[in-house]
Design brief:
Layout (H helix, E strand, L loop, with lengths): L1 H51 L6 E6 L8 E2 L5 E2 L1 H13 L3 E6 L4 H6 L5 E2 L7 H4 L3 E2 L8 E6 L15 E5 L3 H10 L5 E5 L2 H9 L5 E5 H8 L7 E6 L4 H4 L6 E2 L4 H17 L1 H8 L12
Parallel strand pairs: 1-4, 1-5, 8-9, 8-10
Antiparallel strand pairs: 2-3, 5-12, 6-12, 7-10, 7-11
Length: about 290
């Protein structure tokens, strides 16, 4: 009995050890499965985020939110189009960057650049000494004469003396507004400023203004519309280099000298390839703009 009893006890002890071992193995497998599930869930989350999150643009260009055809405006589907949009795409192709447009109000566009909302201003901004004290610029990528338009009639005299007492509309914070303040207001022209060029054009068409002054190419686009059929070009003003500077350039933060150099290299390459002429032909602007020379 003592022998049998010893064997029985031994079997029980061995049985317990086996049960413990099986239980330990089961717990290990359960823990391993939990870890595997967590890894799979994490991988799935990362994959989902990669699908759901669009690729970020390498460069963002700040554009004035209001339409400024034929340079920047939205088509019927809400996509930005225009001469400057094609220019931006060509520049980005030259430097190998993905680019996007960021809308901002014109009168806040320089502060938005300085606040890192985007990388460059692309809004037909003239390169002037006053602006160069605050931000940097690329080389000129186009220039256009400033003109005055008004109702169709025989009167083409746009001298400051002749326009004394007349109502003139200009967009706020532009070289045109500064030109009016320097040459026309002292002679008695009543100058009204507008947040957007469209608003000034609308007041001219409605008869609330007698004249509007702006970029000649932009005003050509307005005159070609039904709304602009009321009016005509009266003439271009005498250029003041202090006000109108060196033409239109890309506005860049002072410290972004490497980006400026990239833009300048791209502008030079585009001029050599005839890209500016191709873009201008697409937008019916051949011969209407001063463009970079090869």
């Amino acid at each position: 009995m003592n022998g049998a009893g010893s064997a029985f006890v031994c079997n029980i002890k061995l049985g317990n050890k086996s049960s413990v071992a099986r239980a330990g193995a089961g717990q290990f497998r359960e823990k391993s499965m939990k870890v595997s599930r967590r890894i799979l869930m994490a991988a799935a989350t990362v994959a989902l985020m990669a699908v759901a999150t669009p690729a970020m643009a390498d460069l963002k260009f700040g554009v004035a939110a209001e339409p400024y055809p034929p340079f920047t405006s939205k088509d019927a589907s809400g996509v930005w189009v225009g001469w400057e949009v094609d220019f931006m795409n060509a520049v980005c192709a030259e430097i190998g960057e993905k680019c996007a447009i960021e809308e901002v109000a014109w009168d806040g566009i320089i502060p938005a650049l300085q606040a890192n909302k985007f990388d460059a201003i692309m809004a037909s901004m003239l390169i002037t000494e006053k602006r160069k004290a605050i931000i940097n610029f690329s080389n000129m990528y186009y220039d256009s004469a400033a003109v005055i338009i008004g109702p169709k009639n025989a009167d083409k005299d746009i001298s400051p003396e002749h326009l004394a007492g007349k109502n003139m509309g200009v967009q706020v914070s532009t070289a045109h507004a500064r030109y009016m303040a320097k040459y026309y207001e002292p002679k008695g022209t009543v100058v009204k400023t507008y947040a957007t060029q469209d608003e000034a054009n609308a007041d001219l068409a409605a008869g609330r203004l007698e004249y509007v002054m702006a970029n000649g190419t932009a005003l050509d686009a307005f005159l070609a519309t039904d709304q602009g059929s009321c009016c005509e070009v009266k003439g271009s003003v005498v250029r003041d280099a202090e006000i109108y500077g060196e033409g239109v350039g890309l506005g860049i933060r002072k410290e972004d000298t490497a980006l400026r150099d990239k833009f300048n290299a791209a502008i030079k390459a585009m001029a050599a390839k005839g890209t500016f002429d191709q873009i201008s032909a697409k937008w019916n602007l051949t011969g209407k703009l001063d463009l970079p020379k090869p």
